[in-house]
Structures are given as structure tokens and as C-alpha cells.
Design brief:
The chain is an alpha/beta fold and 311 residues long. The chain has two domains: 79 residues, no CATH class; 212 residues, Arc Repressor Mutant, subunit A. α2 crosses α15 and α13 crosses α14. It has 15 helices and eight strands. Helices cover 48% and strands 12% of the residues. The protein has a four-stranded mixed beta sheet, sandwiched between helices.
């Protein structure tokens, strides 16, 4: 049976992988996210405008004008991209909203009642993303013995480069251009055998950018990191989508309450953007804080996830 190129299939559909060729899937991913990409660029400009003018509390009409959209189209933009209104989305990205979430979650992330009381999309990462650390033999000598596939794709938060070993995703980051993205990958694994190829491991991972997370396949990560880094990254997977945490709370969760600085460094070294949700870690004041791929993108992610989990 041949695949119908006009039909968009998803991993939960019977016969998905036998029917979908890699080239077809790549076109489908690009088709599904090209409008998201355009919307994200406009939303990023809106977030930047609001952050630059937050003391004045600009009206939504003013923000719409700043990104060259009518209030009507501005409203539709947020509805299409995030599934919520501009007012609600911007509330989700505010310091006040962050403070309210932090106040509600006084217990540590690893409190048994907190863990078992969650269900559905809120436990997305903890349930289906798993980490396997690379052995020294797998990453020594610049990845000499590693075979790595990589590809480029669009996401709701901008273009990404994604790479995988036979065991799982080893690298994903947001990029401004493909050449720079590939350069960064080569610097991390200078002696690995690199092939530009979209494989099934990458396909599984990229479907995380759908708004509907039901039926997503398991995503396997194969990461180069110290024992401490792997411990921190695993802790980040336990932050539910639509929620946030702080460096201090991560420290308490891994029984290292005085290691906030080291935890911050480990979070900053996260090799797989979004899949390990370092964007969900804020300063204790509720401020968005830093992010390797930019604070505007971090705010957009937090708002996007809050809108999805609020549905």
C-alpha cells in the first residue's frame, strides 16, 4: 500500500511508519509548522515589545500595532499558535503568574503526593522521555566511534537541528542558520561519522511540537554528560508541562540544596533543547532569567505550554 501524500498521518495511526517515507514525513513536518514559524516570529516580537515596555503596561491594541497587525489578526494569531487569547497568553508569561505557580507548589518536585497526583499532559516528559548516558568509550576522542544522523526542521519556536546516535537523540538546538547549527554539532563530536538523514528516532522527537500530545511515542535520549549533569537533566524531566521550578527547588529535589550554582551550570549545558525542559526553570523571584536560546523564546515556550495544559 502506498502512502497518500495528501494525508497527514501521526505515529498513533495504524501502519504509520511502514507508509510514511522519510522524505514525505519531512514535507509534512515542514507543512505543519511553517505557519507556526511565521506566527512565532510575530509573537516573539510582541513578547520583546512587552518586555521592553512593561512599566507602561501597553494595551493589546498597542502591541498589535507594534508588530504590524490589526487587533483582530493579533487575536487570531495567538489563537492559531497557542490556542488562547493574547491576554491569557501574556498573563502566562508574566512574573506575577510565575510567582503564583511557585507559591502553589511549596513542596519539592519529588514529593510522592505531588508526583502521583499528576496525570495526562502535565506528566508529559516524565512519562515518555528517557535518558541513557554515553559511556566514556562512546564519546572519548571526539566521538570517534559514533555514527550520528542529523537533520533540520521547523518548530513552533524557530528552526532546529536535531541529531541522533543509534541509541537516541544526542543533540537538538534552536538555530539561526543551518551552517552555524552544523558547525556547533561538529564541534561537539568532531570525529564522529555524520550523515544528514532524518531517522525514526528524530521523527519521534519532533512530534513533541504537536499541540496534541496524546499517543506520542517514547523519546530516547543518548547524552554526553557527567554523572552530576545527567542527574540534573533527569530532574528537569520531572517538571510538569505548564509548571515551573527554580534552581533551589531542583537542588532540594536531588538532595543538593546548596548546589544552585552548579545546577545552573548543568542546566545551561543541556544538549537537547525543549526535550529536556530547562526552559521551565526560573529565578526564585519569578523572573524569566537566562536561557541559552534567548529569554524571548523561553517566555514563548512557557506561555505555549501553559495554554496547552490549561485546555
Amino acid at each position: 500500500m502506498e502512502a497518500d501524500e495528501n494525508q497527514i498521518l501521526f505515529p498513533q495511526d495504524p501502519g504509520f511508519f511502514p507508509l510514511m517515507g522519510v522524505a514525505i514525513l519531512q514535507r509534512k513536518l515542514n507543512y505543519m509548522s511553517s505557519q507556526d514559524q511565521l506566527n512565532y516570529e510575530r509573537i516573539a516580537r510582541a513578547i520583546e515589545y512587552i518586555r521592553a515596555n512593561f512599566r507602561r503596561q501597553p494595551s493589546l491594541d498597542e502591541v498589535a500595532s507594534a508588530v504590524h497587525l490589526s487587533p483582530f489578526h493579533f487575536q487570531r494569531l495567538f489563537s492559531d499558535w497557542a490556542g488562547t487569547s493574547p491576554k491569557k497568553f501574556l498573563q502566562y508569561t508574566s512574573v506575577e503568574y510565575a510567582k503564583s505557580l511557585l507559591k502553589e507548589k511549596q513542596a519539592t518536585l519529588f514529593d510522592a503526593a505531588y508526583e502521583t497526583g499528576l496525570s495526562g499532559t502535565s506528566r508529559l516528559h516524565d512519562l515518555f522521555i528517557t535518558i541513557e548516558g554515553m559511556t566514556p568509550a562512546e564519546y572519548k576522542q571526539g566521538g570517534k566511534n559514533l555514527e550520528i544522523n542529523y537533520s533540520f526542521a521547523e518548530s513552533p519556536f524557530g528552526p532546529v537541528i536535531i541529531a541522533s546516535t543509534p541509541k537516541g537523540i544526542c543533540h537538538m538546538e534552536f538555530i539561526d542558520d543551518e551552517a552555524q547549527g552544523l558547525k556547533t554539532l561538529v564541534e561537539k563530536f568532531p570525529l564522529a561519522s555524520l550523515s544528514r538523514k532524518l531517522d525514526m528516532l528524530q521523527q519521534h522527537a519532533l512530534f513533541i511540537f504537536q499541540k496534541d500530545w496524546k499517543g506520542l511515542p517514547e523519546i530516547k535520549l543518548h547524552l554526553k554528560g557527567t554523572e552530576f549533569q545527567l542527574k540534573v537533566w533527569d530532574a528537569l524531566l520531572k517538571i510538569p508541562a505548564g509548571q515551573i521550578s527554580t534552581y533551589g527547588r531542583i537542588g532540594k529535589g536531588i538532595n543538593m540544596p546548596s548546589a544552585s550554582r552548579a545546577i545552573g551550570t548543568a542546566i545551561g549545558a543541556n544538549p537537547v533543547a525543549y526535550l529536556i525542559p530547562c526552559h521551565r526553570v526560573l529565578q526564585s523571584t519569578g523572573d524569566i532569567g537566562g536561557y541559552h536560546w534567548g529569554p524571548t523564546r523561553k517566555a514563548a515556550m512557557i506561555g505555549w505550554e501553559a495554554a496547552i495544559t490549561a485546555e
